[in-house]
Automatic annotation (TrEMBL):
This is GNAT family N-acetyltransferase. Pfam families: Acetyltransf_1 (PF00583). The keyword Acyltransferase applies. InterPro entries: Acyl_CoA_acyltransferase, GNAT_dom. CDD domains: NAT_SF (cd04301). It comes from the Bacteria. Residues 3-152 form the N-acetyltransferase domain. Keywords: Acyltransferase, Transferase.
Amino acid sequence: MELQIRKALESEINILLEFEQGIVDAERPFDNSLKEGEIHYYDLIELIRSDKAEVLLAVINGEIVGSGYAKILKAKPYQKFEEYAYLGFMYVKPTFRGHGINQKILDRLIEWSKEKGMTEVRLDVYAENEIAKKAYLKAGFKPNLLEMRFEI
């Protein structure tokens, strides 16, 4: 199994949109506030075109099996850094999970973030998503803030 991590191309938008729906489907059990039907979290074409973002794909034997992005965002005025890299669109096809593909994508996105001068990398994960939390803890991330909600 030869794994290649490379930049996404605009021409690959259909597979990227499939991955996005895979992410939505995986997150629905953790968030009953998501609308029914097809929803979109990202403007993937804008991310691919942006010099403030990097969209990466994991490819095995010509098959796209995973994705992720880093995007440079402005920090809050009270934070000690001016910008940080936010990670999202983290997805690996179910049949390819458990082989370290997500970690390889994370490593490359963190490398890109360092090259852009970032000193902080953040991401969001649902509190109840134990599998994802375990993977990010293993990668060196630490819990920071838990958003709470109350449905009325």
